[in-house]
Specification:
This protein is of the alpha/beta class and about 575 residues long. About 40% of the residues lie in helices and about 15% in strands. The strands form 7 sheets. Strands 18-19-17-16-22-23-24 form a 7-stranded mixed beta sheet, with helices on both faces. A hairpin with a 5-residue loop joins strand 18 (about 335-340) and strand 19 (about 345-350). The N and C termini lie far apart (about 45 Å). This is Xylulokinase.
């Protein structure tokens, strides 16, 4: 990370050496990314590690050895960036706080020894339809197939032997945090993808009386209501009643992590955790950790979208929109997930399993052709050329070209599996620009199906929508297509490409400030100006005040073209279903 001004370099070097920094590490679907920021949330250094999920015996998973190798690799790359940018003598010995985030949902069932009992089942799996359907009916709230409780109940329905031996259930972020701190906790945003949440300002299940903290939570006896958000008490009881005849040796609350809101105490880096993160022994233990969060929560933070009537769209391997609600939705929608912000405010989430993976595959194909032609084009340039050509030269409806980016099942579209397709009628106009534009438009097509329910049927208020993720690194193009897809202005900030790792670093900064801020002696000063500040206030006043953003409003001609594309998309779903059935 290049820094040219010598005074800025000296100031940042001093902050790094004194630990007046915060570190965010996010386990994305294709990349593990680490970002170090200063007290103004300015990125100081970064590191990354590329990885990929595997389809093993029909299950989307990651080998957990890759988790620990990737964690160490991303951190080592960050430490190397610190030395390269600020001097070989500058070592990353401590930071003010650390935060871990990762892909939400999925199934990590741990045994008595803390090791997973079965391979990690990620959010991408769509094998829990029966559990999802039954739990939605019993609990009276939408339980998507991705949710941890759906995976657990499906394993129970399937008679899987390991369920009797589960002692803890967690997410990927929760597992990494557990190894670093010894604490079985989750931020409320990530926890809301495990089991329904209730708390102040949120509706509990019928007959319930608020939130409950799991057994063993420090300072909270098992089964007592919490003053902050936690798992829905009534629905926990309903789940236990549902499985009562199966002679399982646990209650569901015994398995779930303790729920924490942003800024709360989530433990400190243990000596074992420090050695796991930095085997060189340079990083010192004792660093405070923020509550671990899911990528949806860090996306909300990265876009300053945690207050009611704000929303954001995150685009990566999956695409999802988060809209912070003023009130509960009128009815249950299987396309809408009830989750929360990192400080526990209710959120409506439209999650699409399929995002940019198919687009990335096509970009790789064009890169391969460039190599074959003897043209040296780095991948970022390939993306920019393709996106800009599709955005500038493609017809508003992609010239009649239709594409489906569905590599896996897409519940929002009612599809149990995926088949990537490119379709066109004989009269369509197949050009490179139209082909690329169709691939860009289809990234947001399933999202549009869910957002129609939220904005049209439920009349949810939305004042501003922010976008972030690697798809938006190329200026204007994807941002403009998203604006036309949803019919609303879309803003992108300077940190749009930083993504969730930066958002997690900001949550770690918030934890450090809530802990007492930074004094000249290091990260644990006795008091701080933000000790009682809300997360929305902290973001608005401390992080995003004066931050530059670019907003694109929907273009009428482009919007009309997208509507024609969506008409073909909806009609063509029958072709997608036939492809799934016959291939």
């Amino acid at each position: 990370m290049a820094v040219t001004d010598s005074s800025t370099l000296d100031s940042r070097r001093a902050d790094i050496e004194a630990g007046r920094t915060a570190l965010g590490i996010e386990f994305g679907s294709t990349r593990i990314k680490a970002v170090l920021i200063d007290r103004a949330a300015t990125p100081l250094a970064g590191g990354g590690h590329t990885w990929e999920n595997q389809l093993v015996d029909g299950v989307w998973s990651y080998d957990l050895d890759q988790v620990w190798d990737g964690l160490r690799s991303a951190y080592a790359a960050l430490a190397a960036d610190v030395r390269a940018t600020y001097g070989d003598d500058v070592e990353l010995r401590t930071v003010g706080s650390i935060g871990i985030s990762a892909m939400m949902h999925g199934y990590l069932a741990l045994g008595e020894d803390g090791e997973p009992l079965v391979p990690f089942r990620t959010w991408r799996n769509t094998s829990t339809a029966q559990a999802s359907r039954e739990l939605t009916e019993v609990l009276g709230v939408n339980i998507p197939q991705r949710w941890s409780i759906a995976h657990l109940y499906q394993a129970i329905l399937g008679g899987e032997e390991h369920v009797t031996r589960i002692t803890r259930l967690t997410t990927l972020a929760g597992l990494v945090h557990l190894r670093l701190t010894g604490r079985h906790v989750l931020g409320v945003g990530d926890a809301s993808g495990m089991f329904p949440i209730a708390g102040p300002g949120m509706a509990a299940g019928a007959g319930g009386d608020g939130a409950v903290v799991p057994s063993g939570a420090p300072g909270h006896p098992a089964g007592t209501p919490s003053s902050h958000v936690g798992y829905d008490r009534a629905r926990l009881a309903r789940f236990d009643d549902l499985i009562a005849g199966r002679a399982l040796p646990w209650r569901v609350a015994d398995l779930l992590p303790e729920v924490l809101s942003a800024g709360e105490d989530a433990g400190v880096l243990t000596p074992q955790g420090a050695a796991l993160l930095d085997p060189s022994g340079t990083l010192r233990p004792g660093i405070a950790l923020a509550p671990p969060e899911g990528d949806a929560g860090t996306g909300m933070v990265a876009t300053n979208s945690v207050a009611p009537r704000t929303g954001n769209v995150s685009s990566g391997t999956s695409v999802f929109a988060m809209v912070v609600l003023e009130h509960d939705l009128r009815r249950v929608h299987e396309e809408i997930d009830p989750v929360t912000t990192p400080d526990g405010h209710p959120v409506a989430m439209v999650h699409c399993n399929n995002g940019t993976s198919e687009l990335d595959a096509w970009a790789g194909l064009f890169k391969e052709f460039a190599d074959l032609a003897g043209v040296d084009l780095p991948m970022p340039r390939v993306y920019d050329l393709l996106y800009e050509h599709g955005g500038d030269r493609g017809e508003p409806d992609a010239g009649g070209v239709l594409a489906y980016n569905l590599l896996s099942g897409e519940p929002v579209a009612g599809l149990p599996a995926g088949r990537p397709l490119v379709l066109r009628a004989p009269g369509s106009r197949l050009t490179l620009a139209n082909f690329v534009r169709a691939q860009l438009m289809t990234v947001f097509a399933s999202l549009r199906l869910g957002m129609d329910i939220l904005l049209d049927e439920e009349q949810v208020g939305l004042d501003r929508l922010f976008a972030h993720g690697g798809l938006f690194k190329t200026p204007r193009v994807a941002q403009g297509i998203l604006a036309t897809a949803l019919g609303t202005p879309v803003a992108v900030g300077a940190t749009a490409g930083e993504g969730g790792a930066w958002g997690m670093a900001v949550l770690a900064l918030y934890r450090a400030e809530r802990r007492g801020g930074f004094d000249e002696g290091g990260p644990a000063g006795p008091s701080g100006p933000c000790s009682a500040e809300s997360l929305p206030g902290f973001l608005a006043e401390r992080v995003f005040s004066g931050a530059p953003t670019t907003t694109i409003t929907p273009d009428p001609a482009a919007s009309e073209g997208f509507e024609r594309f969506m008409d073909r998309y909806r009609e063509g779903l029958a072709i997608e279903r036939a492809a799934i059935e016959h291939s």
